[in-house]
Design the sequence.
């Protein structure tokens, strides 16, 4: 039914509708640390690494990624296991009840369902993968404690801009003032560091503020 009403390929960037439904759902996420991951490449693997690290440390983790490979339930993982069909149906139903007359895209509906499910569970860490861009993506309705920008390439130019700098600005829209923004891209577009500073985030840029050593 969800796919018939709103095909997965439909894109309608913007947070106003999503925020209204999110506020209606009012998921209890206050005790969870939120990490949001954006970037052209490397988002999924970064989410998987974070999920593994926090689980190894004894933390309860909900990870939200897209798209799925085989089963829809892969998009929402709780402690390393896909959410059950019953949990997903319940969460999607909550969003359907909360949305009223608001029109949601497929991705927005599923994202809100993941957040609703996270709010019902006693989780320690919530890891969110951006679907497209960052600034206007549905996951950005939640304020992250840490934002990660993995890489910047020329993706989705019809939506995000024609240059790497413009695209980078959209992706960096997940940053929050006073919170860490970790940037994995080493070849930053000219002037982009100024854009990052303008977010007010605490910057950690690869090759400048930290280095990764292979053992």
Sequence:
């Amino acid at each position: 039914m969800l796919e018939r009403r709103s095909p997965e390929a439909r894109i309608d960037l913007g947070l106003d509708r999503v925020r209204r439904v999110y506020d209606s759902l009012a998921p209890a996420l206050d005790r969870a640390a939120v990490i949001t991951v954006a970037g052209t490449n490397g988002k999924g693997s970064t989410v998987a690494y974070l999920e593994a690290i926090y689980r190894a440390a004894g933390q309860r983790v909900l990870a939200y990624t897209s798209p799925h490979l085989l089963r829809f339930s892969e998009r929402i993982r709780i402690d390393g296991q896909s959410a059950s069909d019953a949990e997903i149906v319940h969460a999607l139903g909550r969003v359907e009840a909360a949305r009223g007359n608001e029109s949601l895209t497929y991705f927005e509906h599923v994202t809100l369902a993941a957040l609703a499910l996270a709010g019902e569970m006693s989780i320690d860490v919530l890891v969110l993968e951006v679907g497209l861009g960052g600034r206007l993506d549905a996951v950005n309705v939640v304020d992250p404690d840490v934002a990660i920008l993995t890489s910047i390439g020329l993706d989705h130019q019809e939506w995000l801009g024609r240059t790497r700098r413009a695209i980078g600005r959209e992706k960096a829209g997940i940053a929050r003032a006073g919170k860490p923004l970790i940037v994995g891209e080493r070849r930053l577009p000219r002037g982009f560091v100024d854009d990052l500073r303008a977010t007010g985030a605490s910057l950690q840029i690869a090759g400048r503020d930290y280095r990764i050593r292979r053992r």
